[in-house]
Amino acid sequence: MQYETKVEPWKHQLTALEKMRGKEAFALLMAMRTGKTKVTCDDFGRLELTGKCQDLLVIAPAGVYRTWETAFETHLSTDLQERIVIYTWSASQNGTTATNLLEKFLAIRDRPRALLVNIEALSGVERARTLCKTFLGQRRSMAVIDESTSIKSPTAQRAKFAVNFLAPLAEYRRILSGLPTPRSPLDLYQQFAYLDPRILGFGSYFGFRNRYAVIKRAPFGPNQRMVPIVVGYRDVDKLWAKLQPHAFRVNLEDCYDLPPKMYSFRTVELTPEQQRAYADMRHFSTTELGKGDFVTATQVIVQLLRLHQILCGHVGTEDGRTIEIPEKRTETLLDLLEEHDGKAIIWCSYDLDVRKVSEAIAKHFKTKVARFWGGNRNSREDEEKMFLTDPDCRHIVATAAAGGRGRTWTVADLVVYYSNSPDLEHRSQSEERAQGVDKVKSVAYVDLIARGTVDERMIKALRQKISMASTITGDNYKEWLI
Q1: Residue 6's pLDDT is what?
Q2: How does pLDDT run across 359-381, given as a tens digit for each residue?
Q3: Disulfide-capable partner of 31 in 115, 178, 290, 404 (CB 3.0 to 4.6 Å)?
Q4: In which band, very low, low, confident or very high, does the pLDDT at 118 lie, cut at 50, 70 and 90?
């Protein structure tokens, strides 16, 4: 049994293909499992077949870019699969053999080529930057940025490099994202600047911000200098209308009648040590924020994270050490998992929690536990495969930063948030990993929550798809420090 189909996904995919036919710049704002990867492969295949494009560069987050190898096997035509040569960048490939392989790849001229690079490498790895520029400069090419919110910050080095150096070299440019505005409409600027600055019609981020953001100036810092603060947005409907000719958007619910997600809480009791540490930190945070005449969302979120870490059982010291505090959150998680006989995803927002939780699950259930986080880059693909295929591996513990995008973990029907990050994109993307059109029952989402703490405010905002960064102001910061 599958979800009832509203409109066959392939019809949306055909619409997207036709809408971007002949366009040098286009945005596929398609939710996961609606086919944006397939549309991209079909688009490149069409251009390659007609001689308009010979090479494809795909840039994606570290947890996503290697999945394109499988996507090519699935979605490229048989003819193109036989002819295309694929090279996947890896920072660890430094030896003579790797150098020779790369040189041979760059020397190919009689076959189409595809280069896969992780976006993090473009933040400062000169070899990766040079490779991308060399590749795009050799022949007519298409440059795709998957999960394009990875370049949403106008000040990020990788975003500036993509816009200033890569975009001018590619005849065709594509961005792919299911959630292009995780924080605010201003997230659109750099993504569309990569496609074509003429789409938005602004030569700078500040001009774009002044047009669509409501800004007030307020004194900030010890010198009381006046700084611009975004307090709202305007004419967002007109902004989206401007993008329509250059973008295609579809949600999963546009394709299927999905069963509702099942949300619930599991209350966590605080230990006496946590209660004391939380009260002290709350007092310190309120006092520290109260010293300034104006408080920014960033300042508040930093204080929230300090409080949140205590709820998870650890706190950082001024000299950079981490002190663990007795907690009952892990015990609560194990009790919850005892009640579930299927596979489960456990999301953690801190590396320390990934280690602690995975070790606790392995010890308690005496089974294999998969992990997917920044600390196991070399083994996480194999561990993911173990979770997907091995019946004895029932749990995967991951961070949303590493595994929250581009992964298909539909074997799980329980998703537990051991801890949340304040990033709305992390929450929205991670929730979708367990969703699939071939599933019979709803996915259960359980948040571990310490009542009467910042947990409540944070989880409420994330579940309602509210960006904390855009709702915290200098006037309401005390409401968040419960």
Answers
A1: 46
A2: 999 999 999 999 999 999 889 99
A3: 178
A4: very high
Supply 295's token pair. 């408080």
Q: What is the DSSP string of 188-242?
A: HHHHHHHH-HHHHT-SSHHHHHHHHEEEEEEEETTTTEEEEEEEEE--HHHHHHH
Gyration radius of the chain's alpha carbons: 24
Contact 398, 348 (CB under 8 A): yes
Return the H-helix or E-strand segment holding 386. Answer: helix 380-389
Domain boundaries, the chain: 4-257, 262-480
* Percent of the chain residues topping a pLDDT of 70: 88
| Burial of residue 386, with CB atoms counted within 10 A of its CB: 0-12 exposed, 13-18 middle, 19 or more buried | middle
145, 162 Cβ separation under 8 angstroms: yes
Using the structure block, give the residue that is written with the tokens 């367990």: 434
In angstroms, the CA 162 to CA 111 distance is 25
pLDDT of residue 3: 39
Helix axes 9-19, 36-49, angle to 10 degrees: 40
154 vs 224, higher pLDDT: 154
Written out in words, the top-level CATH class of the domain with range 4-257 is alpha beta
Q: Do domains 4-257 and 262-480 have the same CATH topology?
A: yes
pLDDT of residue 4: 44
Q: How far is CA 352 from CA 180, 277, 298, 316, 398, in A?
A: 30, 18, 23, 12, 11
| Close Cβ partners of 187 (under 8 Å, ≥ 6 residues apart) | 149, 152, 180, 181
In this structure, the chain runs to a length of: 482
* pLDDT value of residue 316: 76
Q: Exposed (0-12), middle (13-18) or buried (19+): which is 133, by Cβ within 10 Å? A: middle
The CATH number of domain 262-480, selected from 3.40.50.11690, 3.90.550.10, 3.40.50.300, 3.40.50.720: 3.40.50.300
> Is the pLDDT at 141 greater than 90, yes or no?
yes
The C-alpha angle 318, 323, 324, rounded to 5 degrees, equals 155
pTM: 0.69
Residue 187, pLDDT > 70, answer yes
